[in-house]
Amino acid sequence: MLIHHEGVSPTIDSSAWVAPNAVVCGDVRIGPGCRVMFGAQIIAEGGTIVVGRECIIMENAVLRSTGRHSLTMGNNCLVGPNAHVVGCVVEDEVFIATGAAVFHAARLGKGSEVRINGVVHLKTHVAAGDTVPIGWVAVGDPAQFFEWQLRRRGG
Description:
Number of strands: 23
Shape: globular
Number of helices: 0
Strand order of the largest sheet: 1-4-7-10-13-16-19-22-23
Structural class: mainly beta
Largest sheet: 9 strands, mixed
Strand content: 35-45%
Order of helices and strands: EEEEEEEEEEEEEEEEEEEEEEE
């Protein structure tokens, strides 16, 4: 579903494919060879979203921008199912795994990875080639990595 928002309609390269139940809204530009899979949402709420060439946005992933924080994604990136990426810069060849979250004003350097359920905090810079391990949190510029685990009662 392509939605005109705040006077702007999405622009999708003719070689890109968007699933019929994906939502692309507002000032969004999707580059050549991209795939936006079923249930994905790419929502520009005041800022812009630019997705480079040959990127894959998997099922139920959410990409958002705001008036203060646009989102730019380089070439050859993959955003996994149920990931949430908002108002940040994602350089070329970045892998954002299932359930990961990348927040406002963050920057993911070329070839970096955010593994399953990893979190990149506000204004954090993950250097080129660095990896946020499964379930860990990256914080700061340069990023420091912290293990996060949910502690269960009685165990």
